[in-house]
Amino acid sequence: QVQLVESGGGLVQSGGSLRLSCAASGSIFSLNVMGWYRQAPGKQRELVAVITIGGSTNYVDSVQGRFTISRDNAKNTVYLQMNSVKPDDTAVYYCNAVGLLVGDSTDYEWWGQGTQVTVSS
Question: Residues of the chain whose pLDDT is less than 50?
Answer without folding.
Answer: none
